[in-house]
């Protein structure tokens, strides 16, 4: 994830180089994958949620950590352990604020992995200036915010790549997933207050982007990578060395 400030507002994107957060992952042995592919289809509801709803959960997860101890600033995978995860059958992977990263993470067998190839999160009122509001504090609607996301993802994403164990995941432009409005709580001592936002709930808040959820991998070593291009600019690449451990 790379945070930048433009016209007085931090852009909250998960992508590569051009905007804010990029999450990249690379996985390993193809023989370990299900015959119908390593990822849940774009229209699936893994564990009862759409990919858009899982995208909202990803932002709620990522935003609870301070900048200095955030999975996005993880130098080597040391922030990929159980204490950083919400529990349950899905674990989250993060990218960087821009530039490469290489991480090694242990994953319990039977666990799915969710990550954004590129995404963005916007909320009212601070992000309403995108609609041409005269004052940044002016509120705006969820529909207004979605128009901003539609413009960005509809016009500026020029390349997507996810490779697991040497095999590319196909048809990635079908994986765009919008959350719909939800509440973003901003707590003191978290990433958002480190970026200068004041504590308090933000609504409406919307997440949008390209999310992939990998099905549980077989025990052993795997390698995962993903990247995005924005307006032809090369995206970052993050490499995850995944070790799937058998159940205890």
What is this entry, summarized?
This protein has 248 residues and is mainly beta. The chain contains three helices and 13 strands.
User: What is the terminal separation in angstroms?
Assistant: 34 Å
Q: Please write the string of helix (H) and strand (E) elements.
A: EEEEHEEEHEEEHEEE
Please outline the major beta sheet. Answer: 6 strands, mixed
Q: How many distinct domains?
A: 1
Form type: globular
Low-confidence stretches: 1-11, 13-35
Helical content (DSSP H or I, runs of 4+): 10-25%
Helical/strand content category: mainly beta
Overall average residue pLDDT: 84
How large is the share of residues in beta strands?
A: 25-35%
Work out the helix count: 3
Computed over alpha carbons, the radius of gyration is 17 Å
The count of strands amounts to 13
Keywords:
disordered N terminus, 248 residues, 3 helices, single chain, six-stranded mixed sheet, five-stranded mixed sheet
Task: Give the SSE layout.
Elements: E1 4-6, E2 9-11, E3 13-14, E4 26-27, H1 51-62, E5 90-92, E6 101-108, E7 112-123, H2 142-155, E8 157-164, E9 167-168, E10 182-186, H3 191-194, E11 200-214, E12 220-230, E13 238-245
Parallel strand pairs: 4-8, 5-7, 6-13
Antiparallel strand pairs: 1-2, 3-7, 7-11, 8-9, 8-12, 10-11, 12-13
Structure overview:
- By secondary structure, the protein is mostly beta strands.
- The chain has one domain (4-245).
- Helices cover 12% and strands 33% of the residues.
- Strands 4, 6, 8, 9, 12 and 13 form a 6-stranded mixed β-sheet that branches. Strands 3, 5, 7, 10 and 11 form a 5-stranded mixed β-sheet that branches.
- β8 (157-164) and β9 (167-168) form a beta hairpin.
